[in-house]
Amino acid sequence: MGDTRRFLPQLTRGALSLAFLFLVAVATAGIFSPLFIAILLSAGLAIAAIQALFPVSRLFSIAFANLIAVYAAIFSLFAEEVFDGVDPALLSIGFCLPIFAFVAGCWLRRDQVRAVVAHAGGGFGFGPARRPRSPSRNLEVGYDADLRGGSSWACRHRVSGQG
Hints:
The structure is a single chain. This protein has helices spanning 2-29, 34-53, 60-81, 88-108, 110-120, 137-147, 153-160. The radius of gyration is 22 Å and the shape is globular. It folds into two domains: 2-120, no CATH class; 126-163. 74% of the residues lie in helices and 0% in strands. α1 runs antiparallel to α2 (34-53), α1 packs parallel to α3 and α6 runs antiparallel to α7 (153-160).
């Protein structure tokens, strides 16, 4: 029963990522063009491979899917503006190669990537004990004072150099 509960959210994350990629593929390549098929096929295979290689990571495959969407938009822009006369089948191959090279690199160095992903899974949250100290901390103090009903006028003016 525990595996089913963990599998369904993982399946949902993959499906939502592919739905987002579907929208980007339609917007950038049109429906059922060779580039559209390349975007969905390469993204689907790459997301499945990343999830299989790094099952512990909850957000790595989602972040990777979003980066593929950004890559698809930029690739489409260059394909339309610079490589207008190139055969669509070659453009599709050119789109897929870097994605598959990235997945191959993840597979070749999977132990190192798994260590980084596992370490990052410990949390990026900044609680009070882990909050970095910086000049911008004064702004946070002012914001906290406003939330508690106090005034942060002095803090804002000290940071901005006024007063």
